[in-house]
Design brief:
With 212 residues, this protein is of the alpha/beta class. The protein has one domain: P-loop containing nucleotide triphosphate hydrolases (Rossmann fold), CATH 3.40.50. The protein contains seven helices and seven strands. It has helices spanning 14-23, 47-50, 63-74, 115-118, 131-145, 150-169, 187-201; strands spanning 2-8, 30-34, 79-85, 90-98, 103-107, 123-128, 178-181. A hairpin with a 4-residue loop joins strand 3 (79-85) and strand 4. Helix 1 packs across helix 7 (187-201) and helix 5 (131-145) packs across helix 6. The longest helix is centred in the last third of the chain and has 20 residues, at 150-169. It is globular.
């Protein structure tokens, strides 16, 4: 199994990059592990308490579960991947049955933040984008998909997203093998990644030493 980590700030386009890579590859040969599915289980908290959790801090993630399930997939074992509700700010009871595939993509803001998780990856990618572009995408997404007002989004950006990005996410760029600017709009970078992964699947991969 070939494991690829895809990190980047909120609204950078990393999810789009991951999905476009998956859509461009053979069916049933790639699986996606969204890091958001591994937020801590906060069932014992009230909704009001859960909404106060800093979800852009490393402590918000269930690292042992995520790392354990990636190890299981690498060992050829199926997993029951947790699911998460942004409206409830909590993990759901339902799980997704995931079978090991030739390629696994781990996508999330902190995908490169944990040393043990990084060591399980064969390729590490950081999706970069201008702060203004990320903010616009966050506003559009959070209002439409997560039921937040413009004021809520702006307050969260100033008080949480921006400082957490600078402290915990941006520094992980140093661990990336590849840096992809412009997120999901960078079709050339996605095509290069598609070609590279296809070569790996067919046993023809070579060393990668360039910046996209």
């Amino acid at each position: 199994m070939y494991v690829i980590g895809i990190a980047g700030g909120t609204g950078s386009g990393k999810t789009t990059v991951a999905k476009k890579i998956i859509d461009s590859l053979p069916v049933n040969e790639v699986t996606l592990i969204p890091q958001d599915s591994y937020y801590i289980d906060a069932t014992e908290m009230t909704l009001e308490e859960r909404r106060k959790i800093n979800f852009d801090h490393p402590s918000a993630f269930d690292w042992p579960l995520l790392i354990g399930q990636v190890k299981a997939l690498k060992a050829g074992k199926a997993i029951e991947q947790p699911t998460y509700s942004y409206l409830e700010c909590n993990r759901l009871k339902e799980t997704l049955h995931i079978e090991p595939q030739k390629v696994t993509l781990i996508e999330g803001i902190m995908a490169l933040a944990n040393k043990e998780l990084r060591e399980l990856m064969d390729l590490k990618i950081f999706v970069d984008a201008d702060p203004d572009e990320r903010l616009i995408r966050v506003i559009e997404r959070d209002i439409i998909e997560r039921g937040r007002t413009v004021k809520m989004v702006m307050d969260r950006y100033r008080n949480i997203l921006k400082p957490m990005h600078l402290e915990f996410i941006e520094p992980t760029k140093r661990y990336a093998d590849l840096i992809i600017p412009q997120g999901g709009e960078n079709e050339k970078a996605i095509e290069i990644m598609r070609t590279y992964i296809l070569h790996h699947i067919s046993g023809q991969t070579g060393a990668v030493s360039y910046r996209l």
